[in-house]
Amino acid sequence: MPDTNGVVNAAGRKVPLEIDGRRYRPYAGAFAEPPKEDKRRVGPRLGTILHPGDECMVPTLREAIERIELKDGMTVSFHHHFREGDKVLNMVMAEIAAMGFRNMTIAPSSLYSVHEPLIDHIKNGVVTCIEGGSARGKVGRAVSRGLMDRPMVIRSHGGRVRAIERGDLHIDAAFIGAPCADTIGNCNGVKGPSACGPLSYALADAIYSEKTVAVTDYMEETPVIPISISQEFVGTIVRVDNIGDPSKIVSNTLRLTRDTVNLNIAKNAVRVIEASEVFRNGIRFQTGAGGISLAVTKFLGERMKKRGIVGSFGMGGTTESMVKLLEEGIIHKILTVQAFDQYAIQSLLKDVNHIEIGAGFYANPHNRGTAVNLLDVVILGATEIDIHFNVNVNTHSDGILQYPTGGHSDTAAGAKLTVITTPLIRGRIPVVVDDVVVVSTPGESVDVLVTDYGISVNPRRQDLIEQLKAARVPLKTIEELRNLAYSITGRPKKPEFTDKIVALIEYRDGTLIDVLREVTPGR
Amino acid sequence: MARLRRSRIYLPGNRPRMIQKGPLLGADAVILDLEDSVSPEQKDAARFLVTNAIKSLNFGETEVMVRINPLSTCGLEDLAAVLPAGPDAIVVPKSENREGVQTVEKAILQSNLSKRVAILPLIESAKGILNAYEIAGASTLVEAITFGGEDFTQDIGATRTREGREIFLGRSMLVIAAKAAGVQALDTVFSDFNDEEGLRNDTLAIKQMGFDGRAAIHPSQIEIIHDIYTPTDAEIRHAVNVIRASEIARGKGSGVAVVNGKMIDKPIIERAEKIIRIAERLDLPIPEPEE
After folding, report:
1. Closest approach of chain B CAs to the CA of A263, in angstroms?
2. How far, in Å, CA of B98 to CA of A14, rounded?
3. Nearest CA of chain B to the CA of A451: how many Å?
4. Going by DSSP bridges, is the β-strand pair A7-8/A14-15 parallel, antiparallel, or unpaired?
5. Are A208 and A68 found together in one domain?
6. Which residues from B are below 8 Å from A488, CB to CB?
7. How many angstroms separate the CA atoms of A334 and A320, rounded?
8. Based on the domain organization, do A193 and A292 belong to the same domain?
9. What residues in B contact A486, CB-CB < 8 Å?
10. Are residues A305 and A216 in the same domain?
11. By CA distance, what is A454's nearest residue in B?
12. Do A260 and B20 touch (CB under 8 A)?
């Protein structure tokens, strides 16, 4: 039985100190838990080395699994750069199941709807634990309904790398979908039929896992260039027919929304940025690829151009609209952890000022220089936000696990100005509420909420309130926004949960910020 | 001064999500539609929804108009349902004569509302255009007459074009009738909401013809319409100078003043005053006159 006793943490959530054999410290504040000084990064055992003339290539996935000596109860990892087009996770897990392995832990950097076959692997005892990003679609629904005995562990991008480097997440075998590879193990994601852009989320897996297998469908002469994941870390390569569905990996073009309300939210977000002190030469920002975010990128670029502001770098999930800013000289550089469209991938290939960075470089809070700390502005979304500015991105109001944390809590903590953009109401459900279902990102790292019904600044940021007032940006309190939402929708009923904990929401520093419980059956 | 009616956005009366967003679209008015955008089997549901939306949503500065069905169909039932909720205006489609307006006026007056409800006849037939002056003057509640380009085109057997030659005379007659009766002239929608350039050109043209605003069929059109109907900084500055020069001239007992080397007379001054009134209404910055 999981231990459901616990303490109330600094985000006001009751969390256990020990659960499923893991010991946790409660979340104590965004930067309250630095790493212990005597703690070292972990590393894989030496042992697998190649002599001159040795081969890395094996003809089949089964031989790859045999070669790395996979055993029951081990942890295998995957990356999510192929999004809904991923074929690697299902292919590898089907082989693992066929070979009779049981009690495996999987550590994907995120899961998508396409990974629905996992449900059967869980039911059949092949998989008993999931550590990583989050689960969408039917897998998320099944986890929320108590499919697994052991709780799933949800980590941010930075938190996942931190957990790997510290040994909290020990990976026995990393299976890396590699759109382009060579015979000695160098890989990149920018070439080949399944090109996805960078291989950022797989980098820590390759370096720190005991065994690393590259799964590819396209090979070039050794060494492939560029090298995203190097031959130093990859011991086994297998070529299969097809690792991804290109149409579901990236979009051809992400169209700017025509939804006036969302466009107004984006304009108001840009108005907030422009009125704040961070709007100056050298600005560094992350926007993202959602409907509102794409519009923010465009409008921010227009305002920068008009006001003669030149930015230092744009970061994050990269889109054509961000690349256009680079091409027009409105920003100097782009740091990319994932590419959302073909245009971004092509730019990564040809533009030296557009570079791929690993997830650790991007967001690991416990390395010596994390990029999120350089951000002036980040634009983020929310499924729910409460009157303490705590943000939920993992579930909707129904308590069903639906989205990953991604870089949300990482960038929110790092950026000088964290802006949450969201409609006040989705369908008939209020987004601004008294209390979120789970806290993904603590309110102390959130500065501004921009909705279609008004803008609210976290009272912790009196300086920002002064700046926005001086620029005549109309402000409301978050309580006013909540009241407005409830006046339209009514006060929503809370979802009902059992005592069973189905997911642990780790903060990026490894403390426990919240837990998600099983949704009461029949609801 | 009459209400500012640069833009009016049509929202189907049976679409709660769109109606709920109505106050956020930035239009001067929303038209909660019970007529063409609602199919016959949805009429009663739309009537119920629109009535309750007016009662429960806060539309703020946005004027709330309801387009009822023609009086020849279920327009009177619509009126009976929505009037108690207190809309700001009733749009009366297929208006062709004085009697229709007066029927609506009677219903409004009998509803004993504490607020004034304006009547906006929608003129969309050849007969309606020929009777436009009579319609505009049929009731003191008529604050504007509006043009329906699609139905009008069909009624006269013309083909709708991007340039709108086929509706030019109809539009022009409507503007003249409105101004003769002392009410606003409001124009029809620009149907192709993907054609931003077309909308911009057409709106520029109708502004020059004397229309006080136009309808929008898609929220993305509102900003473009406002762009054209909102005075620019230069126009406001010029208007301030015109008014100042006319005051100085009047002080000297002269009826004629000169601004930037051009003679200004009464119509120019009245236009300047209108620009300033709009600027004040929109809270736009109004500079001091230049000496």
Report:
1. 9
2. 70
3. 10
4. antiparallel
5. yes
6. 20, 56-57
7. 12
8. no
9. none
10. no
11. B24
12. no
Residues A286 and A205 placed together within one structural domain of the fold: no
Q: Please tell me the CATH code under which domain B7-229 is placed.
A: 3.20.20.60
Nearest to B24 among A258, A264, A487 (CB): A264
Q: Is the dihedral of CA A133, A135, A137, A139 positive or negative?
A: positive
**A474 and A430 fall within a common domain:** yes
Start and end residues for every CATH 3.20.20.60 domain found in chain B: 7-229
pLDDT at residue A36, rounded to an integer: 81
Query: For residues A104 and A70, what is the distance between their CA atoms, to the nearest angstrom?
Result: 10
Q: Does residue A252 sit in helix, strand or coil?
A: coil
Residue ranges of chain A whose CB lies within 8 Å of a chain B CB: 258-261, 263-264, 425, 427, 452-453, 487-488
Residue A14 within any structural domain of the chain:
no
ipTM of the complex: 0.75
Same domain, A237 and A217: yes
Reported as a single tens digit per residue, the pLDDT across B50-102 is 999 999 999 998 999 999 999 999 999 999 999 999 999 999 999 999 999 99
**pLDDT score for B1:** 58
The dihedral built from the CA positions of residue A479, A480, A485 and A487, taken in this order, carries a sign that is positive
Q: Which residue has the tokens 């419980």?
A: A517
Is there a contact between A488 and B20 if contact means CB atoms under 8 Å apart? yes
Residue position matching structure tokens 């990128």: A297
The CATH number of the domain holding residue A85 is: 3.40.1080.10
**Cα of A467 to nearest chain B Cα, Å:** 21
Nearest CB to B220; choose among A258, A487, A488: A258
Does residue A41 fall inside a structural domain? Answer: no
Instruction: Please determine, for residue B211, whether its predicted confidence score (pLDDT) is greater than 70.
Output: yes
Rounded Cα distance between A242 and A219, Å, is 12
| Same structural domain, A275 and A378 | yes
Encode chain A (523 residues) as per-residue pLDDT tens digits. 444 578 999 999 999 999 999 999 999 999 998 888 788 899 898 876 778 888 799 999 999 999 999 999 999 999 999 999 999 999 999 999 999 999 999 999 999 999 999 999 999 999 999 998 778 889 999 999 999 999 999 999 999 999 999 999 999 999 999 999 999 999 999 999 999 999 999 999 999 999 999 999 999 999 999 999 999 999 999 999 999 999 999 876 667 888 889 999 999 999 999 999 999 999 999 997 788 999 999 999 999 999 999 999 999 889 999 999 999 999 999 999 999 999 999 999 999 999 999 999 999 999 989 999 999 999 999 999 999 999 999 998 999 999 999 999 999 999 999 999 999 999 889 999 999 999 999 999 999 999 999 999 999 999 999 999 999 999 999 999 999 999 988 998 889 999 999 999 999 999 999 999 999 976 5
Domain limits at A81? 59-131+169-249
Kindly report the average pLDDT of chain A as a whole number. Answer: 94
Q: With contact defined as beta carbons under 8 Å apart, do A288 and A379 qualify?
A: yes
In a domain, A139, yes or no: no
Taking one residue from A and the other from B, the number of pairs with CB-CB distance under 8 angstroms is: 26
- Count of CB atoms situated within 10 Å of the CB of A148: 18
Cα distance between residue A1 and residue A149, in whole Å: 9
Instruction: Give the count of alpha carbons within 13 A of A247, CB side only.
Output: 0
Structural domains counted in chain A:
2
State which residue of chain A sits closest to B57, comparing Cα positions.
A488
Of A249, A269, A301, the last residue of a domain is: A249
Assigned domain for A125 exists: yes
Min Cα–Cα distance to chain B from A261, Å: 6
Query: Same domain, yes or no, for A64 and A84?
Result: yes
Closest by alpha carbon to A242, among A58, A75, A62, A82? A82
- B102 CA: distance to closest CA in chain A (Å): 36
Q: Phi and psi dihedrals of A436, rounded to 5?
A: -80, 160
The residue from A195, A218, A249 where one domain ends is A249
